[in-house]
Amino acid sequence: MVRGVPYGHVDGGRPLELDLWLPGPSAEGRPTPVVLFVHGGAWRRGRRDDMGLHTRSWDPGPFERLARVGFAVACVDYRLSGEATFPAPLDDLRTALRWLTLRGEELGIDPGRTVVWGESAGGHLASLLALTHDQPRPAAAVIWYGPADLTAPRPPFDPSASDTMEARLLGDAPVRVPRLARSASPVHQVRAGAPPFLLLHGERDSMVHADHSRELGRALREAGAPVELRLVPHADHGWYGLTGTAVEDLFRQSLAFATQHVRGCV
């Protein structure tokens, strides 16, 4: 594990860093696939190495678990809404993916087999990265309870309010910047040829309504993109309401999906 690797510099801002877990050469001798993890925190806080409350006590932790089964893992910083507004955080993730591509041979990784994995606000950004980045296009996306539409009201989100986390991301109430809100909405960026998506969302999510994942799943299916939507009974945001065993099972499902979709990449 290597912490605090600078991957980008922004004029007038802090250096952007990532943490790397490198599993070593694969048994087949080919470069290892990558999980690019994007943390949550309402776009205004959070740590790059935090997959959520339930995983903080895991030993080994979630990223070490991914490395043990053969994934390199890059946990990345991005500019928060107190530092810059959208599309700055998405630009940062694109920069991180380019950095991994340029350093791929040196690190023994295969950026062409990258799974983007995000939770909450990080799931929103990971969705956008998977849908809008082409060089190289991510192989798959694992999205935990991510916002998908910043244009339409869904409890508790009100696009006309100027004091929400979405408004802070955009720099104004979404209804006042409709074109920007649409470009920041994964459901409106779906296109034919999108990579496979796994969408996991709690049915009782009180912060990001489960309809976000329902609508994104519907849009992906209509575009002909592979998508698996799994709504989790009794689960609130951040998997509150679930047992530790249930969250471990969701992690295993996500890992199985990621493994399946990098195995078939050339």
Automatic annotation (TrEMBL):
Q: Which Gene3D superfamilies match?
A: alpha/beta hydrolase
One Pfam entry for this protein is BD-FAE
| Record domain BD-FAE-like: where | 18-220
GO terms assigned for molecular function: hydrolase activity
| Keywords of this entry | Hydrolase
- InterPro entries the record matches: AB_hydrolase_fold, BD-FAE-like_dom, GDXG_lipolytic_enzyme
Q: What is this protein called in UniProt?
A: Alpha/beta hydrolase
